[in-house]
Here is the input.
Amino acid sequence: MSRIKTIQDVDNALAQLVEDHPELARALHAVNSAGMKVPLRLRPAGFEGLSQIVISQLVSKAAANAIHQRFISHITPLTPQTYLDAGEKIWRTIGLSRPKQVTLSAISTAIINNELDLKTLGEKRVDDAISHLTAIKGIGPWTAHVYLLFCVGHSDIFPSGDLALREAARVVFSMKERPTAKELDTLARQWSPRRGVAARLLWSLYAAKKAGRDATP
Here is the structure.
């Protein structure tokens, strides 16, 4: 699989996307007109990156950042075993909800028991990589897609269930209502094999329409 590793990779993919798809050309114009750029936004791979994505689920960007800062200050070094050793009192101090405590415990245990191998995900077919991740309790498709997109750098992942992407797609396609995740998944197929950069563009468009409010995971 090809990977997105640098901002030049993003720019190259954008150039091809806007050439082939007028709706994305309009989206990029709106982003640039707002004084914004489509970002690279890569995260560390492994437990560090996956835990940060779990923390960001269903909370605001500001809340996620605050929880993550407490997480990395209390879980040192940042390893699955250190997380498990910290225990519930520290987890609550960090601000982790009970579901997130359970998910991170399941991830940590699976890594320690060699049931989850984050190092080889980039070598797998995308469907197999998603299945490998979602086999862990608490990891759903959105988490798996976002991990592959931003931690592995997969070039053709599109988290169609993401609310901000659905809203941005509504604007891009001049729809009265947001498309469902299934509808957006179908629409996004035309952007393959550059759906990972198309997603970055739509997240940027959402931010531009929301006066800079970043909704990228």
About this structure: The CA atoms of residues 27 and 205 lie 6 Å apart. The mean pLDDT is 94.
